Amino acid sequence: MPGYVLDGAGRVELPRQPLAVTVTALDVPVVVRAIASDGGEVPAALQPKPGFLVLPRIDAEVVVVATPGHDRGFPQGTVLQATVAVDTAAVDPDRAELTPLDVSGLHHVELATIAPAGDRLAVHARKTAVDVPLNELGARARSATRGVLGVDRLPESRQVRIEVDIDTTMSMLPHIEDGSVRDVVDLLTGIATVIGRREELHVNLIGHKVSPVPVGELRGAAQSVQSALDAAGLGIGFRSAIVDRSQYTEPTVVFTITDDVPADQALASVPGVRRRPIVLQAGDSSIQQVVEDQDVVSAGAGRANRGWLDDPQDLFRTVKSLVAGLPGGAEQEGTNR
User: Fold this and answer.
1) Among 22, 23, 183, 275, which one has the highest count of C-beta atoms within 10 angstroms of its own C-beta?
2) Of 197, 117, 212, 125, which Cα lies nearest the Cα of 164?
3) How do residues 205-232 score in pLDDT, each as one tens digit?
């Protein structure tokens, strides 16, 4: 019998017969539900076992939703395999197979819409965007950001421009050489894919002058920054307000990577521009805090390299501090509200 692969916002038609939905993930329990247009569960839907849903009759549009079978979000690396098939004893029924979907960090994901289409049933995939590839730390930070905000990606109306200012004065040399700065940039790529406009990162090296760093694909951003840092001349006296953002018209978050709270932090205030210094500290501690009203996040430089990868809870706390105050989007795909 015909089998179809649904990718992105693809659509296929199946016979108007009872359907069975199967959703699986390696070593992760999955709950599958059918949601009606009023937001309630479809009364006729049957759930004989985890990851399996039977829809005996479909007279109106329903949305197939998957959630983890526990109170936490899907773990890092969780990939869902989903199939919508005619519920029959046949060995090879008509079916639609969704492209494997990475749901790391999500509490709720809409997989497909099923609706009557004459004497057929139209199945639409709900996932319309493919995750951009990231390094391991960036991918885990993306999952953590989704877990904190409860969304796959912020709605376009709430997305922000992401800029990264990097202190390149002499005192930052140890953090540059041991890769701490590079790793923070890698972490920020994951955050940018969830909250950033156009999934872009705009980076400035600030020493005796401001030097923008061209960033192409986010997966290569950290290495591009490290190469630029290795070639940069280090200055004296960091001035975080040297970049003029007074004419910005779009909401912006500026992450400033430095080793001390900038003395001119208050002078850099611009409407619509939120500044969030990330202060690297010597040692292995990683303490996230907001200092008075300055939104300063402190992190032990010893968390660089394998630190955040070896301690997912610490990574989650760090990301939570960095995105604190940013709203989630209840209407956005992946919301856990």
Assistant:
1) 183
2) 212
3) 998 889 999 998 899 999 999 999 999 9
